[in-house]
Write a structure and sequence with these properties.
The protein is an alpha/beta fold. It is about 35% helix and about 15% strand. The chain has helices at about 5-15, 25-30, 35-40, 85-90, 110-120, 130-140, 210-230, 235-255, 265-275, 275-290, 315-335, 405-415; strands spanning about 40-50, 70-75, 80-85, 95-100, 150, 175-180, 200, 295-300, 345-350, 355, 365, 370-375, 385, 390, 395-400, 420-425, 430. The strands form five sheets. Strands 7-6-5-8-1-9-12-4-13 form a nine-stranded mixed β-sheet, sandwiched between helices. It has a two-stranded antiparallel ribbon with strand order 2-3. Strand 2 (about 70-75) and strand 3 (about 80-85) form a beta hairpin.
Length: about 450
Amino acid sequence: MNLRRRDVLRLTTASLLGAGVSPWFSRLAAVRGDEVAQKKRSCILLWMAGGPSQFETWDPKPEHANGGDIGAIDTNVPGMRISSLLPELAKRGDKLAIARGMNTREGDHDRGTYLMHIGRVPGGPVRYPSLGAYLSKALGSLDSDLPSFVTVTPAVGLSPAAFGPGFLGPRYAPLQVAASGGPAPGGEGDQGAAPAPRLRVEDLLPDGSVPLDRREKRLALLDSMQQSFAQQYAQEAALAQKTIVEKAVRLMRSSASDAFDISKEPEAARERYGSSLFGQGCLMARRLVETGVPFIEVSHGGGGLGWDTHAQHKPALEPLCGDLDRGMSALIDDLAERGLLETTTIVWMGEFGRTPRINEMAGRDHFPDAWSVAFAGAGIKTGQVYGKTSDDGTTVVDGQMNAADLHSTLCTALGIDPDLENDSEDGRPIKLAEGRVVTELLA
């Protein structure tokens, strides 16, 4: 049997999605790395909306004037120092790999968000999928009751294409978890104060006023109408709407949807993460990983671009870093205690860094030339710093990485070949990622 590489990849993907089984499936699956899926590999992206300052997180420079007035502290790894605003993460330096050499050249929020999520420069006719879409496709299964891609409080209004499935289509679109009114589980509020926001999937529970038998008849009628309409009008919008409804109904019927209800966690567990939306999101991410969801993105930025600290950055960064420090530390510990850190890769990033020079408003502006990302978990060689910036923080002097390199490296850490291809809408084979694999970051 003569098969071109592209045909092998197409047939392999079809088999993994349950489209067919052949006698040579096991051999192809071994080539593609299906053993990774059997281990239920997962990825958690901690997205810092607005562009976090590398000086006040992973690359402090207190000895230089550009370092500002927030100091550095030692971690539990000799020679690794991080911001004094992250004392809990400093205790877990051996669980982290810090890459200080990011250089991405996109200093606009929209374009930077797109670049870091897609791994390609914005523009052109191809609707590329986000890393959440293409990684969840490679790691997940369409047979699962839970979605393969969940994003928690995303700031999608700024760059919607950065969070979407692109040419992979609506079945790989993310389920969005929003913040809604009501007290945060485990949180405390002042008497008479407005209720603190909490995380929830809207309309997940069926309407209790409609009897079960009547609800099922309604759903059957809806399905019949959608099938008929989709057959008559095989257009993208109709198929997308049908797919979304089917996914919603499947989730609503499944007991696995309890994974989204963090109020079921013991109070002590909720307390570890804190009552912030980011902390709640990290706890939800752990619950979703435990249930088998392969990709979860948790955004942090106060529901907007909270890390965009152009003015008075110190008062803004203290609570932001406090939430980050508590939530990310608890996530790492919780995953490790449950044996899930061995199969879960964590990546921390934003759209760019901040300027070395503090501006006249006591803040830092956009700076994509030299900044940091961080990794933890499976497939990562932790307890190290990779890359270096100049003493003044203006340039990368060693270990330079770009967005495509990050995507290729993340794929490899998860056991996925970045050269794996998906077909675009016009039939063109598109690699998952086209950067250099930074082997120094890999376990």
